[in-house]
Amino acid sequence: MDQPLTISQPQFSRDRRLVLIVYFLFYYAFLLGFSLENRLLSQYHPILFNYNRDLTELALIATGIPRWMITHPFSYAVADATAFLLPLAILVKFGQKRWFSPVFWVVFALNTAFYLLLADIFWQVHHEPFVLFFLLALAFIPNRPDRFYQLMSGCRFYFLYIFASAAIWKIARGAVFNGEEMSRIFLLHHSDLLTGACISFPCRIYTWLIIHPPIAQALYVAGALLEASFLIGFFTRRFDRWLIAGAAVFVVADLLVMRIPYWTILLGSLTLWIRPPATSRPPVATRKEKRIVLYETTHHENLPALLDLCELQFNQVAVFLKELSYHNLTGEAPPEQRWPQTDFFIQTIDCPNRRFIRQLFQFIRRHGFSHLHLCTLDNNLLLFAVRLSFIGPVHLSLTVHEVNEYFTRSFRTFRDWTETIAKQVLQRLMRNYHVFLPAMADQLRQRAPESTAVFIPSRFYSGHRPADHPFPGQSNLSMQIEF
Questions:
Q1: How far is it, in rounded angstroms, from Cα 277 to Cα 255?
Q2: Quick one: angle between helices 381-389 and 414-429, nearest 10?
Q3: 475 burial via Cβ count (<10 Å: 0-12, 13-18, 19+)
Q4: CB atoms within 10 A of CB 4
Q5: Side-chain half-sphere of 42: how many Cα atoms within 13 Å?
Q6: Model-level pTM greater than 0.70?
Q7: Which residues are CB-neighbours of 51 under 8 A, at least 6 positions away?
Q8: How does DSSP assign 312-349, residue by residue?
Q9: Where does the pLDDT of residue 96 fall: very low under 50, low under 70, confident under 90, or very high at 90 and above?
Q10: CA contacts within 13 A on the Cβ side of 466
Q11: What is the pLDDT of residues 329-350, one digit of tens each?
């Protein structure tokens, strides 16, 4: 299969815009951090430089640039100003023409690498958290979707390598098996606190851990296991969302336990969040069986039409719905008689919503359903957004009852905040929508042009027609549920 043909231009534009925004937020955050710590080159004003065991730094020193900068201090301000202002030229260019200039990005990537090398030569900044700034800048150079996603995948492997190699190194040199390893690390790393009057709360905690080596070593082993979990990312993207959470936990723990602000490395989480379209949603045609789950809470009057279509188009149908909706679905006859190929899972009155939602996703994962359609989504939006982010290769679709409400943002209450965040995630995940009026479908296509919106009426009426003359247009409507 030719991968570039499977990449939609709207998704490519949206993904690259997301990477651009997050990238420069991190970029200016680390420059601001340098400024607050008086570590910009013009603030530090170095008069010496270091010969580190790094071939790129030695090559830069061989050019004579660091020595020239020491004798011409104004060059420090020029380097700082270039680091701050060069991205603005890229953003202005993008704002004017809505595309990326490869020349600007090449210059920016080289300047970023140059500035970080100078920082390490002059005041020993560690490269590891900042290499991704250079690598991700390279991903913006090509304007072709397939090459962008290939470079993002390469950056993803580097991000995984940072954690996985640290775990392998801890195991290879036997540090995880040395019961006093973490206690010794505490003694060396926190010597500035331990040598004085130990009256602060952190100092007392570190002292307690030092005199209790088994507990300190348990923290070390837990960190190594968390780092080792990133090895799974080399084999599958299925757990990328969990690895993002693991990276955040590791950075927070490193700050609390070791006082190391390693937050810049979280920029690499972008590489786990962005997925190439060809691998994020496997084509439906490659699956042997199509099995769909419908989730309904309130608007059971819309279910009959969907169930009629689903039984025609899918090998297996399952419905999760409330007890009241089940009893009102068809009147006197039980729903199983009208839809014999459908399994009904009923939420009783004493069953909490969250437990029922958890059972829904457990059912999908356990039985390998290929499609999930949310007929009504009126509560627990954030829970659904989180669950759907980790659901894997399942074809998602949603019934939108009010288009304006679906795109509304509100921040008056805590629930408004959570629902606004959840809607943003849902709008990113959903590519297929069902509405009840043709005008709603047109409006939704305008608000989300990269998505598909179809109109399916809530009832089908065949009238008095012979068996060999089906209801006009029924076959076309039946096909729409395939999305």
A1: 35
A2: 30
A3: exposed
A4: 12
A5: 14
A6: no
A7: 57, 58, 61
A8: HH-SEEEEEEEHHHHHTSSSSS-HHHH-TTEEEEEE-T
A9: low
A10: 2
A11: 766 678 888 888 889 998 888 8
